[in-house]
Structure formats: structure tokens, C-alpha cells
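Input chain follows. Return C-alpha cells only.
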Amino acid sequence: MVRNAIHLVLLSVLVPMSAYAQQPTPAFISVKEVEIRSGASDKFPATGKLLQNDRVLIKREANSGQSLEIVPPSGSFSWVREKHVQSGPPENGRETLVTTVDETELRAGADGKTEPLPHVTIKVKKGTKLIARGPKVNVAIEREAWWPVECLPDESRFIPASAIQKSTAPGSLPTLPPGGNGTKEPPQWSLADRAQREGRLDDAERLFLDIVRENAGTNGDFELSLRAQNRVREIRMQRRVNLTSRPSGGGSTLIPPTGVPAFTPPSDLLPPRPSLQASPTGMSRTTTSPANANARNSSAAGWLRRSGFQIDGKQTYALESNNGQLRVYVTAAPGVDLESHLNRPVEVFGSFEIRGDVRGAEYMRASRVMPIR
């Protein structure tokens, strides 16, 4: 009886500690360039590359400490057989797929390749929702069609442990690279981020607001609170984009959902309007007046990340300052590739436009992007 009681007490202690230990640890690439692989050694095919100071999230050590299992970096993707999925309802303007059989295999995708790699990264159960990254592809060597899809949260990629500074082993706080954002994310951040990506906006907003409240005091993490506020603002804009009313006069007006107040943090937390003073030290900004009275040509610098909503049906990105402050929302003009610069410091050039349906920051249509080294 006593032994069983002790066993239950140990379980109650060990389970939460184990769950916390599995929370990904942020770290930064310390070498000039490193290949991402689909498995835990160089025998597995490469899926892409990371550059020095790129941020990764480490899950755990692998291959006797020779490799690190990481959350698939931004831009990673997988493949699923067409015959194992059916179309699902659109989500935030993106096509979704739902698996129709148990043990559906997802295979790793690689940059520059239009066919799946031979390595199975995960098997998922029937009814799993996937986000399509593009149209299906007829793969000649497989003699069947495949869909490219976004990586699931449970998928992993791998890098050599030597690519990370030794001080950033799993469980320790990484050394911040020049210009980086070293705020350590609490466990509920990944839950909130996943809820937003899955379209569970109420859950995501509640979790991000919990982070804001928990860090509101003098001992709180100001930068983390600011980043969470940005995400709440983004979620509420995402709702407005999803609720479009078309007046009789034509055009469209984006309206907030009933009962959801506008998110207005204290004035000192509001993002600065793009200006010469807002540029990072050493970065130049030029401004000209285009023919359109509602637009002006300029540039903005910051860390680029993918936003959770679309503008004019296009993937929207956010530029953030070093401390996580939202500076500007960005979409790409034709021929401009923003996706390859995710989670990296960049300067974006283009035209700022005044729009009534974009709130919380100014909006830019990017005509050029330049990495900051």
C-alpha cells in the first residue's frame, strides 16, 4: 500500500518534469553553413541548409550526441500520397487535406526537389489535417501523385551537434547572436502557436493573453510580453480577414467579430511608425513619393517571420525588431522571394500603403529583400 502510494507520488513528480524537459530549446547556428537532414546522421538525405546565426529549436540529442533533433525550420515541408488524402475545408485561404487511412506516411521534402525523399519522417492516423504547400505533383519514379504539405508539429529534422555552440546544449539558454532575440519561450508558447496555425484562434488568443498577464509585473519578461501582444493583435486581425462583408457599393470591408474588442496595449508598447529613426544602427533608409497618394517608397529592417493571415490573398510576413516589437506587415511583389529569408534579419524595400483593413502596424508591398549580415 505504502509502496503504491510512493509510486504514485513519483509519477506525479516525474511526468511534469519529463514534459518540461521535452520543450524545445532555442539555439543559434555557429558555423557558416550546415545541412539539415531527414535523419540523425549524414547517411540520411539533406533537406535544406541553415546559415550562421539562424535560429533553431532543439528537441533532444540523437545518435549518441553526434546529432541534434530539431523542430523543422521554417520552409521545411513533407510529402503525402494523393491516394491517402481527401480535400478538407479551406483554412485562412489555404488548401487543406485530411488523411483517409491509418498509418499514413509522410516523407521528407528537400529544397529544389519536386519529389519526396525516400525517408519516412512520421506516420499519422486517419483524420489528420494537413496544410497543402502547393498543387499535387505527378512523380514519375513513384508512378503516382503526391501533395507537398507543411510539416506537422511532431515531425523532426536533424543537424550535427557541432553546428551549435557547445553552451547551447538542450536545456540551457543559448548565447544570443548579434542582433538576435534571445527570449526563452515558455511551454504555453508552443501550444498557443500550434493553436493559431491549426485555426483554433480562441484557444490561441487565450494562451497568448495568459503569457501577457503572467509577464505584466515588474519581474515579468517585457520582451516576451511584447511578442505575445503582437500575436494577439495578429489573431484579431486574422479574424477580421476571415469575416469579410461586401457592401452594396462594391469592394470589401473587413470587420471585427462581435464581442472581440480591439487589442490596444499601452502607448509605449505600440510599434513605431517606420521612419529614419526606426532603422537599426548602421542601416540606411530612403523615402520617395510614388504616384499613388496612398503609398510611399521606403525600406524597413528587422527579423522576418511568417504571419498567420493573408492580405489580398497573399501570405503575409511580419518584420520585428530585436526585442520582438512588431514594425511592419509585408507581402511580396511578383518575383520577390521572402520565404527563403524566414527568421533572419533582413532589410525590405518597397512601397508602404495606407489601408483601412490593416491595423497594428503599417503595410508594405516588398519589391526587394536584402539579408543583413
